[in-house]
Amino acid sequence: MKTSLDQLPKPLPPAKLEELAMIKQLILERFEKENHDFKLEKIILFGSYARGKWVEDSYVQAGITYEYKSDFDMLVVTQQGISESHWLALCIDENIDKHPAIRTEVNIIHHGIQFLNKKIEENYYFFTDIAQEGVLLYDTGRYKLATPGPMTPAAQGQKAQEEFTYWFEKADEFLRHYGYALKDNSYNIAAFLLHQATESCYTAILLVFTDYKPRGHNLKRLSKQAASIDARFQAVFPLRNRREKELFQLLKKACIDARYKKDYTITAEALNYLSERVLLLRKLTEKLCQEEITRLKGIVF
């Protein structure tokens, strides 16, 4: 873990450094007021800013200015775990949101030190990435972060089961809401939900087989990674002709364009074709993941 913002691969401009200093101070002040109940241990910057991949971009299309700005992602570590809906977490969010000088969106997650270290020891990639790539903005020094530990196949199988269950249920949830949106003739929303179901299936596959999912929502990249695991995924979205490529491109762009761009359009016919492909992906994901989980759990020394 980096211990200073000076170690960032992409230096932050002064305005960003000032914002981070203000955010840190607001968090510290809030915990000082509640010191008798809660113990703050660490504040960690993670995500795009910690990796040097942050973006601030704007462009004009058809007379409309579009902006994309990376958020500050921060992990607040406490002795006693609190949830994002806890009143203390809500107070911190409110103080930051109302501060006139903080213009970058801030996303804060809260976890107790024992929970965090348990997840790191169990090799949960989200938490191990924070431990490896994050920047320590504040630290009492009372606790050290754990080191990822070795995993037996049985433990890996249990972890794979948990990841599969979570992401497969997510895929089914998006597919249910896709049906509602389609029935309501909300085609753009339906396309977005199909994209989310597709991404959830690919996430399940990658986490079960590789224990890692790359950041981003690029379905073309995710489909290639799934096909490298099993060639049967190549047939899910065949790109044999211009029409098949155009339809896949509509699904690929639905994550952003279907929600935010007026010129994004998709027909019921296109949605019906794409939903058939996503259902095929769902079926293949379930079959292969369950087989791999069973294999892992059955390995003994």
How are helices and strands ordered from N to C? HEHEEEHEHHEHHHHHH
Radius of gyration: 22 Å
Strand-residue fraction?
5-15%
Distance between the termini: 34 Å
Looking at how many chains there are and whether they match, the oligomeric state comes to: single chain
Content-based structural category: alpha+beta
Give the low-confidence spans: none
The global form is globular
Q: Output the strand order for the largest sheet.
A: 5-4-1-6
Quantity of strands, as a count: 6
Could you give a short account of the major beta sheet?
Answer: 4 strands, mixed
Compact summary:
The chain is of the alpha+beta class and 301 residues long.
Short key terms for the protein model shown above:
6 strands, globular, two-stranded antiparallel ribbon, alpha+beta, 301 residues
Describe this structure in words.
This protein is an alpha+beta fold and 301 residues long. Helix content is 55%, strand content 13%. The protein is globular and about 60 Å long. The two termini are 34 Å apart. The mean pLDDT is 90.
